[in-house]
Structure formats: structure tokens, C-alpha cells
Design brief:
Elements: E1 3-6, E2 10-16, E3 19-26, H1 28-36, E4 42-48, H2 54-62, E5 66-72, E6 78-84, E7 91-97, E8 117-120, H3 125-133, E9 140-144, H4 147-152, H5 154-161, E10 166-170, H6 171-178, H7 183-192, E11 197-201, E12 207-211, E13 215-218, H8 232-247, H9 252-269, H10 283-297
Parallel strand pairs: 1-4, 1-8, 2-6, 4-5, 8-9, 9-10, 10-11
Antiparallel strand pairs: 2-3, 6-7, 11-12, 12-13
Bound molecules: adenosine monophosphate.
Length: about 300
């Protein structure tokens, strides 16, 4: 196994203009791993309570996702309630119940410690740090977070950011964390903290990739069907990291392809509640959409006008 994710395995109650559903399979690690499972085997590090239905875990195992790093504890699972307005670009949190996450002390299974690719999905930054401490020289560590942790644990979050190779934020989070309205300034400030790569996601407007050597703007796959945007960011990251792990290279070409593959993955994710759509598609569907995205954005440089 070449890729692990630490994050939440959760229950979600979600309202969008297209429906209202409760106790859905959710959590950053869940959505990330379902996306990544299209290309590689992925292991989850996380915690669940007694209320998480067995069926949620069975679905992960059926997709060859390794659950050795999931601990079951007495108490309730992480539970998130949120809704989206008509434009569906940003989630509004109604309630966050940490449950067993509040006291979770991750212990990595021995086989996970030498894994080369590690995604620290949105979770408590202190938990993210304790996972980093247990790793044996990983090749590429990538971190996500959100407003909830930026507001409540900014100091801890900054310490983890200083130790990872890459960071992914959405635009509001980047502005909030870096204290600037300008996303280019935010990207540069995040690079100044130490990571070699920063991705800032702009919802339906795509994403920006910054590094010290090159920058890259990706568009979102143009889709008319958006039913529930929850997990778009996690599935983007799952597509991105699994592409890099599968190719096992960290050069500019792979990063560009991985960002576009992440956009394609997210475009499927939003077509239904939870990961329902993502588990119904094949690698051929992903490939076709990737190539359609290429046609959509491709253009040639000009010699003259
Ligand atoms: P996103 O990809 O950003 O839409 O992430 C959606 C998932 O994040 C949901 O399934 C939630 O269970 C999970 N989530 C919401 N709030 C938090 C939080 N504060 N920490 C970790 N995970 C969260």
C-alpha cells in the first residue's frame, strides 16, 4: 500500500436545494478514500463511535480500502450538519459534533509508518501532527483543513503546515488563514511557511496550483448536474493524491495531470448525495471525462495576431 489518509469517518446531515438527507456516510477520510480507490489501495487512519452503521465500513472494504487504522471507541462518531444555498459554492455548517474525535490519539499500524504518500485530510491539526510524528520519511505529505480548525486551532495548524510538503485550501480558508483578500498573496504566504506546493480551490471556478518553480490554473469540469457538493474537496484530493501515488513521480507534468484528474473526480462526486455517484462509475468514465476536459481547455500559443 502506497497511500494513507488520516481524517474523519463521519455521519452527515445535509440539506441542498435538491434534497435533505440524514446520517449519510461522510467524513473527509471517507470521501477521499472512495475517490482514491479508483486508482490505488488506500488505508484510513481515523476513529468511529458505536453508532456508525456496519454497512458504511463494509462498502469501504468492498472497494479494497484498508481499515486497519480505524479505531472503534465507545461514544458517538463525528457528526456534521450543513446546508448549501442556491449557488452551492460554499457549505454552511449548522452543527459539528466531534464525538470520539475529541479524544482520539492515532496509533498507526506498523505497515502504515513507511508509506510514501500521506494525505492529512481535514481533521484536528493536533491529530494530523501526531500522525506526522509516526511516519518514517514519507515522500509526499499533503494537508487539508477548514474554517472550523483555522478558527479554533490556528497555532497548531500553522505548526503542521510548516512540516508538510503541500497544502490544499479553498479560497475562503486561504483568505482566512493568511489574512489577505488576495489569493496570489495567500499562495505565496503559504509557500513561505515551508510547503513546496499549495493548491487553492475555487469551487466551480477551478483551482490554482503554486510552487516555487511553476504555477498552474485548472478549470473545474463544466457540469450541469450539482446535487450535493459535500466531499467535492476531499474527492478532488483523493483523485490528486491517488494519481501521484499511482505514477510515483513528483514532477510538473504529473502535478498538472493530477490536478485535472482531481477536478474530474470532484465533478462526479457532486452529482449525487454522499459518494453514491462515485461508487457507480468506472475508470473508463474517469478517463473519458478527463479527455473531454482536455478538449475543453486546450489551446495553442500564437506567433502573431
Ligand atoms: P468537503 O470535501 O470539504 O466538502 O468535506 C466534506 C466532509 O467534511 C463532510 O463529509 C464532513 O463530514 C466533513 N467535515 C465537516 N466539518 C469537518 C471538520 N471540522 N473536520 C473534519 N471533517 C469535517
Amino acid at each position: 500500500m502506497d497511500l494513507i489518509v488520516v481524517g474523519t469517518v463521519a455521519l452527515d446531515d445535509i440539506r441542498t436545494p435538491f434534497g435533505d438527507e440524514k446520517n449519510l456516510p461522510g467524513g473527509s477520510a471517507t470521501h477521499f478514500s472512495i475517490a482514491a480507490s479508483h486508482l490505488v489501495q488506500v488505508g484510513i487512519v481515523g476513529v468511529i463511535g458505536e453508532d456508525l452503521p456496519e454497512a458504511h465500513l463494509n462498502l469501504l472494504s468492498e472497494r479494497n480500502i484498508d481499515l486497519a487504522g480505524i479505531e472503534k471507541q465507545q461514544g458517538k462518531s463525528f457528526h456534521w450538519k450543513g446546508f448549501y444555498e442556491y449557488d452551492m459554492n460554499s457549505a454552511h455548517t449548522l452543527d459539528t459534533q466531534l464525538g470520539v474525535l475529541a479524544t482520539f490519539d492515532p496509533k498507526l499500524p506498523a505497515a502504515y509508518r513507511s508509506v510514501p504518500y500521506v494525505f492529512l485530510a481535514n481533521s484536528d491539526p493536533d491529530i494530523q501532527m501526531r500522525v506526522l510524528d509516526q511516519l518514517d520519511r514519507p515522500k509526499f505529505t499533503f494537508l487539508d483543513s477548514m474554517n472550523f480548525w483555522i478558527s479554533s486551532k490556528k497555532g497548531s495548524l500553522e505548526k503542521v503546515i510548516r512540516r508538510v510538503n503541500g497544502v490544499v485550501f479553498n479560497e475562503e480558508e486561504a483568505r482566512q488563514f493568511c489574512n489577505t483578500p488576495n489569493l496570489i498573496t495567500a499562495g505565496n504566504r503559504l509557500l513561505d511557511l515551508g510547503p513546496s506546493f499549495v493548491i487553492i480551490k475555487k469551487g466551480e471556478h477551478g483551482s490554482l496550483l503554486f510552487s516555487r518553480d511553476f504555477s498552474f490554473a485548472a478549470v473545474a469540469y463544466p457540469t450541469e448536474k450539482i446535487i450535493d457538493p459535500t466531499g467535492a474537496g476531499d474527492s478532488f484530493a483523493g483523485g490528486f493524491m491517488s494519481y501521484i501515488a499511482r505514477h510515483d513521480r513528483l514532477d510538473e507534468d504529473v502535478f498538472r495531470e493530477a490536478v485535472n484528474f482531481g477536478s474530474v473526480m470532484a465533478s462526479f462526486m457532486v452529482e449525487d448525495f454522499s459518494y453514491r455517484k462515485l461508487v457507480s462509475i468506472t475508470t473508463m468514465d474517469l478517463l473519458e471525462r478527463y479527455n473531454r476536459l482536455y478538449q475543453y481547455i486546450h489551446f495553442e500559443p500564437l506567433d502573431a495576431l
